[in-house]
Amino acid sequence: MNDLHFAFRQLRKSPAFTIIAVLTLALGIGANSAIFSVVNHVLLRPLPYPHPERLVYLNEVIGGTDTSIALPDYVDWRKDSKSFEHLALSRLETRNISGIAGREPERISVAYVTANFFNVIGLAPQIGRTFTEDEDKPGAPSLAVISDRLWDRAFHRDPQIIGRPMEFHGSPVTVIGVMPREMDAPHNVDAWFAVMRRSANPGWQNRANHPMFFGWGRLKEGVTVEQARGEIKAISARLAKLYPATNDGTGAQVRPLLENLLGNYRTSLALLLGAVALVLLIACANLANLLAVRGAARAREFAVRAAMGAGRSQIIRQLLIESFVISLIGGALGLIFATWGRDALVAFAPANAPRFEGLGFDWRVMAFTFGLATLTTILFGLWPAWQAARTDINAALQAGSFGSSETKAARRGREWLVIVEVALTLLLLSAAGLVLKSFAKMQSTQLGFNPQQLLTVRVDLSFIKYNELNKILGFTTPLLDEVRKLPGVQYAALSSNPPLLSGWQLSFMPEGAPPTDPSQQPSADNEVVQGDYFAAMGINLIRGRTFNEHDTATSPKVVIVDQTLAETTFKGQDAIGKRIMVDTESDGSDGPALHEIVGIVPHLKMRGYNDAIPTPSFFFPQAQVGRTGFVLEVRGSGNLKRLEKPIRDIITRLDPSQPVFDVRTMEERVAETWATQRLLTFLLTIFAGLALLLAAIGLYGVLAYSAARRLREIAVRLALGARPAHIRGLVMGHGLRLFGVGIVMGAVAVAASASVIRSFLFGVSPLDAQTYLIVGGILSVVTILAAWLPARRACRVNPIVALRAE
Question: 404 falls in which pLDDT band (50, 70, 90)?
């Protein structure tokens, strides 16, 4: 306790040192704890299901690209595999729910699943039951299991909901069960339906068709993911031999469910955790330097204590207790910083970031913070304490007031800490610079359309009610006519797919091409449009014409293609007037038909900035195809959000049971595509700036102490006629030498990390020379400034005053 009281007195006597030390440590611990709270919640928290480590996610792979599962392939997987207790199938969709007293129509996320899906998850319903195998067959009654969230939101947790009919997409469905709250994740599904009721769909029975089915499996006890993956791949290889026309080149993938949910977030969080760990190392190096300098300045104090009988262990203990007090205060303040940092992370996180909901601190985060505080006590406290305890008593008592008794090993140790700080700072600055340049590239990517002043509204008509083309057009045509009359509206159009969200791909063949296996046919993104689509999207026509009123259900079928499709399919020819064979029905039920190409438009990056390999696209008129799900695009002037209410009113007049959802500007949609990169860029820039500040403080501290220690030498030099410029060069030269060694070490680290940072970049090389020149320039300027301040002070020393003090 005496040592603890003495430690507090010593820290109170040096308020500037204490404040800098505590803030430095608090920033390092706070940043690490904030990132760890996210890592803990997103990566380390297990899924809320029984034995979640046995849950896997399955999909097929064609040409190295993940794709959905063909229904017949799933049937064979389920029949032949031995690794799974249960193997289920699911298909995500959205549906309208209406007819609930006191509630407006609503759009919800639903999943069509096999009856054993709930056995895979392992959760029983909180009330009611789930589907039986007999209820998951063609002709079975229309039933639904709903989520706890929907039960609470729409039915106020009424237990009498079981057996009650609900209206989904204009069709009555009976509710048979309510799942517990744990089932609200991972896909935020509000209702589940039996998928095999629709399995008679002829398109689904085609092995060449992959209609957005994905597999869920529960491994048998003792079976590893690698074993299950090998078995499913072997079954896929056998199917490729049995059905070469459709399955040639089709493989399979099996992943742990949590790994699949997280996707690229795992690597992004790992990068951020590594970055803040470097910040903490720099902070610890900085504090070690500060304490070492402080220990050297207190050499006489320790020598006197040693002369009076204090042992080496007592001096080490005293300094470690001082370090512990700094760590304790810095850790407590760091926890406050971590809370603010966590809130900032949630605010900046993309809207669809997985498992970010309910982000908070639990015992793991608290233990991590306490562990960091303890670890930093050892990291930055032990070495200075050991150096101070090794002070030569006689030399210290005989030395001047500026600690000239300090050993060369101690000085070199402090210098190497600064060198390490410079190297780590260069590594962080380089990573931040590369990611920042990559982010700028994303934002400046030309998408092929103009996202400014464009409002998007999603509408999904009931396919039960709007089951004919004339009924669909009876809704969409007056909708466009009414929207065009709204003040400030320039163009209004409809398209079948949400912008920047890849839609359905269809296979096609140019007219006259020899018959080809479906698996070998080219495919393209398809878009069904109506109204002033190309004008509303700001797409310029290259050749030909756009759709007009003469393109009807009874007229010859037409199509507009993008430049990529025209150039790859009709090389060296004019594509206008050519015809392609394509089946515009997504279920493949009507068979292919010839469509004449009437126009060519530029390639659109419908997947956003990350459209590295351009996928061809074609566009069909709504009047010839008909889609019940579409996006209303409205180009106008002024504040576009003011159009939301009148558009809702128009849709309600046309169909009171029709919900409107996902109302956003196109600029918001574009920004969402690089939201993850924006968060990564923001945090890396903050961490790199913090590292730069800490490195500058560390370099300044070493040079300032070195200049103070050589004060007598500098006074003698000045007294003998040395010019101030020479003194400045002496001090700054010392700093620049440390900087030079640090730059070399940092360059080696940067080159070694190039392969790691490559996966986070877009359109930028991990060895981008321009970025490294800028980063090197910034670090050089900061280094010169950190060295110039003590050099300027040294050359202003009054020789008489300095020598008299000695």
Answer: very low
Distance (Å, whole) CA 74 – CA 71: 5
Return the bridge partners of 620, or none: 528
Q: What is the dihedral of CA 353, 358, 363, 366, to 10 degrees?
A: 70
DSSP string, 699-712: HHHHHHHHHHHTHH
Q: In the structure, what pLDDT confidence band is assigned to residue 325 with cuts at 50, 70 and 90?
A: confident
Say which DSSP state 111 is in: E
Q: Is 147 left (phi over 0), alpha (psi -120 to 50) or beta?
A: beta
- Euclidean distance between CA atoms 257 and 46, whole angstroms: 11
pLDDT digits (tens, 9 = 90+) for 141-180: 999 999 999 999 888 899 999 998 888 877 889 999 999 9
The 10s digit of each residue's pLDDT in 183-211 is 876 678 999 999 998 877 777 888 888 88
Q: How far is CA 64 from CA 57, 60, 344, 610, in A?
A: 17, 10, 37, 17
d(CA 241, CA 491): 52
**611 pLDDT more than 70:** no
pLDDT band for position 578 (cuts 50, 70, 90): very high
Higher pLDDT, 656 or 521: 656
What does the buried/exposed string (b/e) look like for 650-683 if buried means 16 or more CB atoms within 10 Å of the residue's CB? bbeeebebbbbeebbbbeebbebbbebbbbbbbb
Residue 664: name the closest of 454, 425, 415, 384 by CA.
454
* CA separation for the pair 806, 801 (Å, rounded): 9
Q: What is the pLDDT of residue 805?
A: 54
Of 475, 509, 504, 479, residue with least CA distance to 493: 479
Distances (CA, A) of 402 to 397, 522, 697, 712: 12, 79, 20, 9
β-strand partners of 505: 525
Q: Do the beta carbons of residue 146 and residue 163 sit within 8 Å? A: no
Structure tokens belonging to residue 16 = 């500037």
Cis amide linkage into residue 186, ω under 30° from 0: yes
Residue 671 pLDDT level (bands cut at 50, 70, 90): confident
Instruction: State the residue for tokens 């997985």.
Output: 354
Six token digits for residue 761: 């970049």
Read out DSSP for 537-554? HTPPP-EE----TT--TT
Concatenating the DSSP letter of every residue in 411-429 gives: HHHHHHHHHHHHHHHHHHH
Residues contacting residue 433 through CB under 8 Å, at least 6 positions apart: 688, 771, 772, 774, 775
**pLDDT confidence of residue 587:** 45
pLDDT at 402 over 50: no
